[in-house]
Design a protein that fits this description.
Elements (H helix, E strand, L loop, with lengths): L15 H8 L14 E7 L4 E10 L2 E10 L2 H14 L4 H5 L3 H7 L8 H24 L1
Helix pairs in contact: 1-2, 2-5, 4-5
Length: about 140
């Protein structure tokens, strides 16, 4: 049986998608300075969860996105999924991605790990804001 059963109630374990994004994270590492149009960071390094995120925008769309995550498997998997969801989107479309979108795309995550999904969303918002500030500053 390859499919996961329908569940009612909270997810208490990591789904296959979460495990895949944790074991094989997409879009990891830093973008080179010349490729970076926006940078964002979220989290608290003192408690262990921190995310750094870089974006390159071309033609109004996120052409490249990359992250470094310091945290639990949930933080890494949600960050990886966020980058997959944001790639190719306009900055306005990417700005509208929510933590619920990330969680849904992963098939759910344990309740006590839902705060992890916020890291990526906050870092992406910060990177988009940074890009806009760079444009204003010329």
């Amino acid at each position: 049986m390859d499919s996961e059963p329908d569940r009612k109630g909270p997810v208490l374990f990591y789904t296959k998608a979460v495990i895949d994004h944790f074991m094989n994270p997409r879009n990891t590492g830093e973008l080179a300075e010349q490729d970076t149009d926006g940078f964002g960071m979220a989290g608290d390094p003192e408690c262990g969860d921190q995310l750094k995120l870089w974006i390159k925008v071309h033609g109004g769309r996120i052409e490249k996105i990359s992250f470094k995550s310091f945290g639990c498997p949930g933080a890494i998997a949600t960050s990886s999924m966020l980058t997959a969801l944001a790639t190719g989107k306009t900055t306005e479309e990417a700005r509208s991605i929510t933590d619920d979108d990330v969680i849904e795309a992963l098939g759910g995550i344990p309740e006590n790990k839902k705060h992890c999904s916020l890291l990526g969303v906050r870092a992406l918002q910060s990177a988009i804001n940074d890009r806009e500030a760079r444009i204003r500053e010329g």
